[in-house]
Amino acid sequence: MLTILGKPTRKNGQFCDGVSRRSFLKIGGMALGGISLPDVLRAETESQSGSNHKAIINIYLPGGPSHIDLWDPKPDAPKEIRGEFSPIKTNVPGIEICELFPRMATMMDKFIPVRSISDADGRHDAYQCMTGRKFGSRQPPGGWPAAGAFVSKLQGPVNSAVPANVALMYKTGNGTWGEPGTGGFLGVQHSPFNLVGRKARSSPENMVLQGITLERLRDRVKLQQAFDTFRREADTSGLMESMDVYSEQAMNILTTSRLADALDLSKEDPQILARYGKSIETFQRDGAPPMIENFCLARRLVEAGARFVSLNYSRWDWHGPDGMNFPKSREEFPLLDQGLSALVTDLHERGLDKNVSVVVWGEFGRTPKINQNNSRDHWPKVSCAMLAGGGMRTGQVIGKTNRKGEFASDRPVKFQEVFATLYQKAGLDLNGTRIFDTSGTPQYLVDQGIEPMREVI
C-alpha cells in the first residue's frame, strides 16, 4: 500500500526528519490493513468507469461536536443549556446558527442544517459516519462496506490515474477516529485508498522515503527502488507475492501528473487557497490535526477523478475536567466556518455544486445541560449534520429538536437516510441495486424501507 502526503508533525510544520508536509512521499501500509495499490488497480479492469462524474465529500469531525453550540442554538433555554454563544441570523429568514459561523451565515442558502439525527450508535468512532450502519447491527459475511466502497463498486474509477474511493484520514491516537472503513464484503479492492500518513510512533511497519518531493514523483528510478524495498518487506509478511503488471500500473498512478498535481497545493491559485485558512499541522491530542487545507485537497481530488473522498478533521471531544468546550469552540468554529464556506463557494464557482455533495458530521451530539466542568458530555439521543451541493434543495433546515435540544421533536433523521440521499444524488439506484455478499445473500445500499430525505431531493 501507498501513502502520499506524509503525516503532520508537532514541530514547526515539518516532519520529524525535517521534510515539509507538501514535499513528502511515504510508501508503506494502507490504513485499510493489507490492501495493496495493485489490488485497487486490478479491480479497475473488472468494472466500467462511470459516465457521469458525481462525487461525495464526507467530512468527519472526530469526537462528537455539540449540536447546540454549532448549528442548533437554543437562545430561549436556561443558561445552563444555551451556553456562552448567541445565535446570528443568516441570509435565509428563520434560520439561525452560532455566532462563530459568520461566513456560513451569509451563504446559508447554499447549506442544509440537519438538526435531528436521532439514531446515533453512541460509540466513539467513525463507523456510523462511514457506513451509515450501527456497529452492533447484524453484519453480513465480510462486514458492511464503507459508503465509498459501494460507489467504487457500482460506478468504478473515472480514470486510471485516481482511485474512485480515496481518503484523507489520519491515523489517530484514538484509533477509531482514524478508520475510513473497508470494502467489507465487496473486497479490499474497493476499500478507501488513504492518501495521508500516520503518526511517527504508530508507523514502525512503514517504509519511509526521505526527501522525495512531489516534483520528483516522476523519478521512476527512485520509485522503482522504493517499490523493490516495499516488495521485499511485503513478501516477508505475505502481503504481496510478486510485482506484476498491476504494480507497474501502481507506479503509473504516482508518475501520472493527475494525482500528483491534485495533491500539490502549490499548484492551487494562492488567492483561492487563502480562502480556506491556514492548517494547523499538529495532532489534537488523540484526534486528527486541523488540516483545513484538506478541504481544498478534497475538491482537487474530485476534480482529478475521485468519486468519494473521506477525511477526518481535528478533535471535538471537549468534556473533560479541563472544561475546554467553550474555549475550544472559539478556536475551532471560526476555522471550520472559513474552510467549509470556502469549499462550498469553490464548488459553486466551478460549476460543481450540482454534482458534488458534501456532508459534515460527527458520531453523536452533546448533552444539553452543561456539566460541572463547564463542558458537555456525550449525547447519542440527537446530533446534527450539515449538507451542501449535490443539486440538493438547499436553504432549508431539516428536523427540529425540543426547546432544550434534548431530542428530535420533529422529523427524526437516521444516518442511513443521509447516505440514501447522498447515494441518490451520486446517481446510484437505491431500489434497483442489490449486491450479493460472500455467502450469496443479496444486500442493499441501505436497509429496506430507508428512503432519501425527500425534502432535499
What's this model, at a glance?
The chain has 457 residues and is α/β, with parallel strands linked by helices. It has helices spanning 37-44, 67-70, 79-82, 102-105, 127-131, 147-155, 220-237, 245-255, 257-263, 270-276, 293-304, 325-349, 415-425, and strands spanning 2-4, 25-27, 55-60, 87-89, 96-98, 111-117, 165-168, 193-194, 207-209, 308-312, 356-361, 365-366, 378-379, 383-389, 400-401, 408-410, 435-436, 442-443. The chain is globular, with a radius of gyration of 21 Å.
Any idea what the shape is?
globular
First and last CA, distance: 38 Å
Mean pLDDT: 83
Low-confidence stretches: 1-7, 9-38, 40-51, 199-218, 237-246
Number of helices: 13
Biggest sheet architecture: 7 strands, mixed
Q: What is the CATH class name?
A: Alpha Beta
DSSP helix fraction: 25-40%
Organism: Gimesia algae
Pfam families: DUF1501
Protein name: DUF1501 domain-containing protein
Architecture overview:
- 27% of the residues lie in helices and 14% in strands.
- It is α/β, with parallel strands linked by helices and 457 residues long.
- The chain has one domain: Alkaline Phosphatase, subunit A (3-Layer(aba) Sandwich).
- The strands form 6 sheets. Strands 6-14-11-3-10-7-8 form a 7-stranded mixed sheet, with helices on both faces. A 3-stranded antiparallel sheet has the order 1-2-9, with helices on one face.
- Helix 1 (37-44) packs across helix 8.
- It is globular and about 60 Å long.
- The relative contact order is 0.21.
